[in-house]
Amino acid sequence: SARTLSFCLGCPSQALSKRWFVRSNLPRDVRFRALSGFSLHSGRSCAGQGVILARPYEKRYTSIGVSAFQCDRCGEGFASRNNLFQHLRQTSLDCGEDLAAAEGRERQPVIDTSGTLPGSAVAGSAQKPPRPPRQRATFTQACQLLWLGDIPADLASVKRLKHVLWKCDLPMPQPHIRHVQRKGYRASKAADFGAQCADPVAKSRRDWLGYAFVAFRDAAEAAEAKQLLQGREVCGGKWKIRIHDVPGDWKSSIKEPPRLEPGRDPPLGEQLFPRSVGHTKRAAAVARHCAAIGIVLEGRDEKQLATSVKSHYQQHPREEVCVHGHPLPESLVAAALHELEHTRWNGVGAAQYLLLYHGKCNEGYTALAKICENILQWADPDYPCTMVAATKNYSGSPHIDSSDVRHQFAVSFGKFAQGGELCVECVSQPNKLWVVNTHNRLARVDGRAVHWVRGFDGERYSLIFFATNPADHEDLAESCSTGWIPDAVTNQ
């Protein structure tokens, strides 16, 4: 135990103090931490048996003075600063209660800080809510993948391979390169794989040849690409492309993120302090939440404050304000849903994501880009949209769209009955949460605030219109525009 650091010689009482123990002349590698009178592992008394219960003393405790680990109120010694701070934060003890009264703080429950902050703080008086169950991760279907081999070493990179495939002028969108292995096998052994190397000099020198796994939107597109590329010589005859189908039992190393259960939110720690944000934004979030719920910032570090914030919200959940977006016309809903259901998504699993560039050519997605343009014209023709994110069954973890420069428009389609709302943290009141219904409705929100999609069942499609041009920057005022009305409705 951290509180029993005396050096005892079979005596039930603490004969020698920690001050003598730390400042003794014993070598650092043979200092001992004794268990005074009792063996905590066996529970049996060692008094009168002449047995020294000792362990090697940890180095990090020897270079720090005893005053750093001793409580000034009760005089009890501790093995580390963390143990001392835990002791002073426990308002159930006299020391913690007196300190809280002197600082003007309310009596708070004991906090278990044994986990990783800020995601695992637990209130001592309240039980930790159960973690939301998640579905098992799935893998990319192997029928959408092709193996490309005999790649020369100077072409075996994602950037060079993308350029080579682009020069091939395939009648389809650029495929997704999942993995490139620069040194796969020797050129002299290429014949063992059923192909001849295009360069006989490289074959005699036993140069390395690479291979790659390339993902296509579906099996039909993969078969078409194989027929067009098999045996084709590119880069002036430097590479003769060799393609094989990926076996059906092959498992991809990239898994699809697990989905939340319908109607469930991500863990509270991820909602308050997303992992994707940097240290500066995380510190600002801690200060914002502390100001909203009245936690004193003085004399406490960021991790302690984050623990207190999470403990507060576990006992006092945030207020949820339900907001409904503006209904889209039935003609736009039907056209968008039909096109999204028949879109050939890229081969990244069940949860799929693609970007459409506003005002530019989107090869393979021309019809979907036209529908997005019609929706934007109905909502706000003057909105400086840069890109549109189209998703299928996508529910990312809480995050901030740091590349956005102003508000965005969000709408969802599909057959899902429970969940699927867009949850956005209120900027002016962090203890409030906007729960936005975007099912066949267009909402105006700001992605620069923490947001996520609540768990859902069924199929859910979404379109997100956002701007990234710095010239169109607007300050973040509020994360949800409750009184917004589309231009087409205003001009009627």
Quick description:
By secondary structure, the chain is of the alpha+beta class. The chain has helices at 18-23, 81-89, 94-103, 158-167, 200-204, 219-229, 268-272, 279-293, 302-315, 330-341, 366-379, 487-490; strands spanning 32-34, 54-56, 111-112, 122-123, 145-152, 176-186, 208-215, 233-234, 239-240, 242-245, 319-324, 326-327, 352-357, 387-392, 408-415, 422-425, 432-437, 441-445, 451-453, 459-466.
Overall outline: globular
Largest sheet, spatial ordering of strands: 12-18-15-20-14-13
Low-pLDDT stretches: 1-67, 107-126, 134-139, 190-197
- Backbone CA Rg: 31 Å
Word description of this protein:
This protein has helices spanning 18-23, 81-89, 94-103, 158-167, 200-204, 219-229, 268-272, 279-293, 302-315, 330-341, 366-379, 487-490; strands spanning 32-34, 54-56, 111-112, 122-123, 145-152, 176-186, 208-215, 233-234, 239-240, 242-245, 319-324, 326-327, 352-357, 387-392, 408-415, 422-425, 432-437, 441-445, 451-453, 459-466. The protein has 492 residues and is of the alpha+beta class. The radius of gyration is 31 Å and the shape is globular. The strands form six sheets. Strands 12-18-15-20-14-13 form a six-stranded antiparallel β-sheet, covered by helices on one side. The protein has a four-stranded antiparallel β-sheet with strand order 6-7-5-10, with helices on one face.
